[in-house]
Amino acid sequence: MKQVNPYLNFDGNCEEAFTFYQSIFGGEPQLVRFNEMKDEMPGLDQLSKEDGEKIANIALPIGANTTLMGDDGKGVFGHGVTAGNMFMIEIEPESAEETDKLFNALSEGGEVKMPIAETTWAEKFGQCMDKYGVQWMFSYAGSKEKNLYD
């Protein structure tokens, strides 16, 4: 496995939270706002100006091999944030095969939130909740290995 990272979900205050985390851990966050991704994700052009300014993805290195990540997505898309659903474990497998194997094993008996599919930033991306209620996010960049923040 390439890397495992905590991924936090917020309801509009992601930037404020990461400013706080930066004051504690240091480092320089990299972020993308929803309005910067309109060409990559259908439906984003219909967001309000306020929601377009919210965080679509942010990454703050907090250790040699750990990045604290997050977004305002649950709030922007009306899913709401409550204790218990405000975090995911983000896994970056080393191969497409490992991605499928881990996703299938962790989603068995649980719930597929977003089936594994190709995106503009990853050959394979998906989300599931395991049978214990833990949320998982998978991102295998493969040939699309690039910096999302460029």
TrEMBL record:
Organism encoding this protein: Salicibibacter cibarius
Q: Which CDD domains match?
A: PhnB_like (cd06588)
User: Entry's InterPro entries?
Assistant: Glyas_Bleomycin-R_OHBP_Dase, PhnB-like
Q: Where does the secretion signal sit in this chain?
A: none
Annotated protein name in UniProt: VOC family protein
User: What are the residue boundaries of the PhnB-like domain, all occurrences included?
Assistant: 3-136
Pfam families, alphabetized: 3-dmu-9_3-mt
